[in-house]
Automatic annotation (TrEMBL):
Pfam families in the cross-refs: Peptidase_M48, Peptidase_M48_N
Family membership noted in the UniProt record: Belongs to the peptidase M48 family.
InterPro entries linked to this entry: CAXX_Prtase_1, Peptidase_M48, Peptidase_M48_N
PANTHER family for the chain: CAAX PRENYL PROTEASE 1
Domain Peptidase M48: 209-411
Keywords: Hydrolase, Membrane, Metal-binding, Metalloprotease, Protease, Transmembrane, Transmembrane helix, Zinc
Keyword DNA-binding on entry: no
Cofactor(s) listed in the protein's UniProt record: Zn(2+)
Classification of source organism: Archaea, Methanobacteriati, Methanobacteriota, Stenosarchaea group, Halobacteria
GO biological process assignments: CAAX-box protein processing
This protein's record includes keyword Membrane: yes
Native source organism of the sequence: Halobacterium bonnevillei
Name listed for the protein in its UniProt record: M48 family metalloprotease
C-alpha cells in the first residue's frame, strides 16, 4: 500500500508543483522579454506602460497558483484524515438508494470545491481586477452571481453524475463506453444550454438589428458565405472590462455573441476581422473537430478510470467504501494529471485551427492588417502577456502567441 501512496503523491502533488514551477518560469520569461521588446510593445501593440502589464501578469499568475496549491492541500487533508471515506459512508447509509447517494456525493463535492474557490475569486475580483480597472462588480452582485452559478453547476453535475452512474450500474464491464456517449451528448447540449440558459442569468443580450453594426456584421456574413439570424451584443461591461466574442451552437441554434466592450474598443474593420475569425471555426468545422477530440480524450480517461474502479487498493488507500461514486472521484485524482500532461497534443489541433481561422479572416477581409490591429488592441486593453515561455505555451496555449500572429498577418 505504501507504494500506491508514493505513486499517488508523486502524480498528484508532483503535477501541481510542476505546473506551479512552469508558471513561475513563464513569469520570469515574460519579465525578461517584455524588457527587451519595450519598443515593439509600444509601436505595435500600444502598450506604453509595460510595468503595468507585467504586474497584472505576476498577480494573476500568483493568485491562480496559490489557489491550486491550497486546493491540493485541502484534498490531501480530506483524504488522509479519513473524512472523505466517512462522508461517503454517511451519505450512502442515510440515502438508501445507491444512485441517489452517488449523485449526492458528486453534488456535495462540487459545492465544497465551489465554496473553496470563493475567497480566491473575491481576491481576484476586488483586489487584482479592481486595481487594474477591470472590475465592474459590487460585492452584492458578486455574491449573487456565485450563488446562481453554484446552483446551476449543481444541477448540471447532478444530471451528468446520474447518467454516468446509471451506466456503471447497467453496464458493469463496458460502462466507460456508454459513459463516453453520455458525455458526448452533454457536450453537445452545453453548446445550446450555456449561451441560451446559463449566460442570460448574468448578462443581457441585445439583438443586433437595423444599425451600422448590423450592416457591418451582415457584410462579413456575405463575404464568408455564412448565414445566422441570431447576432447579439452582450453587456459584459456589467461585470468586467475584458473583451471577447464567441460563436456557439449548431444548425438552427447558431448564435454569434459580441461583448459590448469589444464593440467599443475596436473600429469597424477590426471588429469584422474578429468576427470573420470566429466564423472560420464553423466554416472549417473546427467546432466539430474540437468536440471529437474532447470525446476521444474523455474516452481514454474513462477507460483508465474503469480499470482503477476494478481494483481494491483505490478504495483501501483512504478507507472509502467500494461505491461507484467514491471510485470515480478517487480515479479522477489519478487521471487528471494524465489529462494535464497530454494537453500539448490537444493544443496542437487547436493551434492549427487558429492559424487556419486567421488565414480565413485575411481572405474574407482581403487584408491582414485589421485582424492584426484587433489583436494588438485586445492585448493592450486586456493586459495579456504576448510572450509566453515555449514550454508554458505548449501546455496552456490554444492560440499562437500574439507576436507570431501579427507577424503572419502583416508579413504574409
Amino acid at each position: 500500500m505504501l507504494a500506491y501512496h508514493a505513486a499517488f503523491l508523486l502524480l498528484v502533488a508532483g503535477s501541481t508543483l510542476f505546473f506551479a514551477g512552469l508558471a513561475a518560469l513563464n513569469v520570469r520569461h515574460a519579465d525578461e522579454t517584455v524588457r527587451e521588446r519595450t519598443d515593439w510593445l509600444a509601436e505595435t501593440v500600444g502598450v506604453e506602460d509595460p510595468d503595468r502589464l507585467l504586474d497584472y501578469h505576476r498577480l494573476t499568475t500568483a493568485a491562480s497558483q496559490l489557489e491550486s496549491v491550497v486546493l491540493l492541500g485541502f484534498v490531501l487533508l480530506v483524504l488522509y484524515t479519513g473524512l472523505f471515506g466517512d462522508a461517503v459512508s454517511v451519505v450512502y447509509d442515510a440515502t438508501g438508494n445507491d444512485l441517489l447517494a452517488g449523485v449526492a456525493v458528486f453534488v456535495g463535492a462540487t459545492v465544497v470545491v465551489q465554496a473553496l474557490g470563493v475567497p480566491f475569486d473575491a481576491f481576484d475580483t476586488f483586489a487584482v481586477e479592481d486595481a487594474f480597472g477591470f472590475n465592474e462588480q459590487s460585492p452584492k452582485l458578486f455574491a449573487r452571481d456565485k450563488l446562481v452559478s453554484t446552483a446551476f453547476s449543481t444541477v448540471l453535475v447532478a444530471v451528468l453524475a446520474a447518467a454516468v452512474l446509471f451506466t456503471v450500474q447497467q453496464f458493469p464491464q463496458w460502462w466507460w463506453v456508454a459513459a463516453t456517449g453520455v458525455v458526448a451528448v452533454f457536450l453537445l447540449a452545453t453548446q445550446v444550454i450555456v449561451p441560451r440558459v446559463f449566460l442570460p442569468l448574468f448578462y443581457d443580450f441585445e439583438p443586433v438589428e437595423n444599425s451600422d453594426l448590423r450592416d457591418a456584421v451582415d457584410d462579413v456574413f456575405e463575404r464568408a458565405g455564412f448565414t445566422c439570424d441570431d447576432v447579439y451584443v452582450m453587456n459584459a461591461s456589467s461585470r468586467s472590462g475584458h473583451s471577447n466574442a464567441f460563436f456557439t451552437g449548431f444548425g438552427r441554434t447558431k448564435r454569434v455573441v459580441l461583448f459590448d466592450t469589444l464593440v467599443e474598443q475596436l473600429d469597424e474593420a477590426e471588429l469584422q476581422s474578429v468576427l470573420a475569425h470566429e466564423l472560420a471555426h464553423w466554416k472549417k468545422r473546427h467546432i466539430w473537430q474540437g468536440m471529437a477530440s474532447n470525446v476521444v480524450q474523455v474516452a481514454v480517461l474513462l477507460f483508465v478510470a474503469s480499470v482503477l474502479l476494478d481494483t481494491t487498493w483505490l478504495y483501501a488507500m483512504f478507507g472509502a467504501p467500494e461505491t461507484p461514486a467514491a471510485g470515480l472521484l478517487l480515479a479522477s485524482l489519478w487521471v487528471q494529471p494524465i489529462s494535464q500532461f497530454t494537453q500539448p497534443l490537444t493544443n496542437k489541433l487547436w493551434l492549427a485551427n487558429e492559424r487556419e481561422a486567421d488565414a480565413f479572416a485575411v481572405d474574407v477581409m482581403g487584408d491582414g492588417d485589421p485582424l492584426a490591429g484587433a489583436l494588438a488592441n485586445l492585448t493592450s486593453e486586456n493586459l495579456g502577456n504576448p510572450f509566453p515561455h515555449p514550454l508554458y505555451e505548449a501546455f496552456h496555449y490554444q492560440h499562437p502567441p500574439v507576436p507570431e500572429r501579427i507577424r503572419y498577418l502583416t508579413e504574409g
